[in-house]
Structures are given as C-alpha cells and as structure tokens.
Design goal:
Layout lengths: L5 E3 L2 E3 L9 H6 L11 H19 L5 E5 L9 H15 L3 E4 L5 H11 L4 E6 L13 E5 L2 H11 L3 E3 L4 H15 L8 E4 L1 H16 L6 H5 L1 E4 L2 H12 L2
Helix pairs in contact: 2-5, 3-4, 3-9
The structure holds the ligand C/C(=C\CNc1ncnc2c1ncn2[C@@H]1O[C@H](COP(=O)(O)O)[C@@H](O)[C@H]1O)CO.
Length: 242
C-alpha cells in the first residue's frame, strides 16, 4: 500500500482507497451487467439536466418574487385570501410570481398572479404521492431534486413573501435567511405575512437565538413581519430601490 495521492477528478484517494483500475479501464472494459447505470456518479447527469432545464425555462422571466406557505391551506382560510391578494399585488407591482406549484398557499399566490394577468410560475417537485401543478400555473417546471428546485427559487426571485406553513415553508425561509446572513445573496427581502402565526417563531428567534448569542441583531432584522399583503409588496419593492 502506498501513501501517494491518487487523483480522480476533484477527489484525492490514498492508501487502501487507491483503486486497482483506472476510470478509463472501467469505461472501456466490457460490462456484463447494467448496475453501473444506477450509481450516484451517473445521477449527476440527471441533476445537471435539471439545472439546464430550470435555467433555460426561467432565464427570461424578468423580476420575480417567490411566495411560499403551507401546501395544506384550504381556499376558505384567511391566509389563502392573503395569498391571492399578494399574488395579485406583486403582479401589479411588476413582478412575476414564483411558487412551488402545489396546492394551498402556492395555489393562492398563483391564482392572484393569473387573475391579475401576470406571469404565474410553478416549480413543482416529484413526491411519492401525485399532487401535480395547480391549475393557476402558466409556466411550470417539474423537478426531481429539492436542492435543484431551491436553487431556482433563490436565483430567479428578488425576495420571498412567506405565508404560514410547516416544515417545507420553514426550510425555504431559513435557507434564504442563511444565504442572506452569509452574504450569498444581497438585498433579499424576506417578508412574513401573518403576524399571529409568525410572532411565536420571532419571539424564539429574538429571545433564544439572539439571547443566546447564536445570531446578531442584524440577522433578526432580516425577517420582517406584516399582516397586510399591500405592505408585504411595498417592503419587497422598497428593498429594490437604490
Ligand atoms: C402535502 C400536500 C401536498 C404536497 N405538494 C407539494 N407540492 C409542491 N410543493 C410542496 C408540496 N408540499 C410541500 N411543498 C414545498 O414546501 C412548502 C410547503 O410545505 P409545508 O410543509 O406545507 O409548509 C411549499 O412552499 C413548497 O415549496 C397536501 O395535499
């Protein structure tokens, strides 16, 4: 066994991990089964294809804002009504509206955008149970991988408006706030819509996360909470002004 580095693309291998054959050998040698097709490195091509599809579909979208929130909101809830209004007002302010393309809050924002005559985008995700794109999506892209889809939300929107939601919504919100904190995105408004719902979480953020020194005052300020869809859109618009 040798301690010398064995370079396989970006990967360095040493000791017992140094392979006995090279990539070229394995490529050119005869294969008697198709197992290699199902390995992770092969999957990278699919992942790459999803990025290409997404970038291609959204390249000419123009200014857009993503709206997130629970997939389980029903159309009779006040949050759903706010979702419709925020979708409409975003279009009136000159934005396309991007959602996860599913039911609940996503459907509400797409509905508002469509009814206002704007561009209504749904970035769907393959799930073990079929939900499909909601009927108010005019430009839809379906993804296999959550992380590819999440890149599209951040890359093609100028900010997020976040309605009440569960784990999926919190995941999208906290990814964005981390990207803002680490300056991977700059000038990225994050507006939480629904004071009663979000206040206990903001109390935790301020009381515990800030209180224990895990985040800074500036980080707390990254999350703005409002009750009124009009105010939510105003905050998004103002963040864009020079
Ligand atoms: C669970 C139900 C439908 C699932 N369908 C979804 N379609 C598209 N996107 C979804 C779906 N579920 C979650 N998401 C993503 O997460 C966010 C909402 O998650 P939450 O846990 O409900 O807050 C949402 O913004 C999507 O991006 C019901 O039939």
């Amino acid at each position: 066994m040798t301690d010398e580095d064995y370079q396989r693309g970006a990967t360095t291998l040493r000791g017992k991990l140094v392979p006995r054959t090279t990539t070229d050998q394995r490529l050119l040698d005869e294969h008697t089964d198709a197992d290699w097709l199902h390995t992770d490195p092969w999957r990278v091509l699919r992942i790459q294809a999803e990025f290409v599809e997404g970038f291609g579909a959204l390249a000419e979208l123009g200014p857009a804002v993503a709206v997130f929130g629970s997939a389980r909101l029903t159309s009779d809830s006040e949050h759903y009504a706010r979702g419709v209004e925020v979708g409409r007002r975003l279009v009136e302010a000159g934005y396309a509206v991007i959602t996860g393309g599913g039911p609940g809050a996503m459907e509400a924002a797409n509905k508002g955008a469509r009814e206002a005559g704007g561009t209504s985008v749904g970035l769907g995700i393959e799930l073990p149970f079929e939900t499909g794109l909601n009927r108010y999506v005019d430009l839809g892209v379906n993804f296999r991988y959550f992380f590819v889809r999440k890149t599209m939300f951040v890359k093609y929107s100028q900010g997020y408006v976040v309605l009440p939601g569960g784990f999926g919504t919190l995941d999208e919100l906290f990814e964005a706030v981390t990207l803002a904190q680490t300056q991977k995105v700059t000038s990225f408004p994050l507006v939480l819509l629904g004071r009663d719902f979000w206040t206990p979480m903001l109390d935790f953020v301020r009381g515990t996360l800030l209180g224990e020194g895990m985040i800074s005052e500036r980080d707390v300020e990254r999350l703005q909470v409002v009750d009124d869809p009009e105010e939510a859109v105003r905050l998004v618009v103002e963040a864009r002004l020079p």
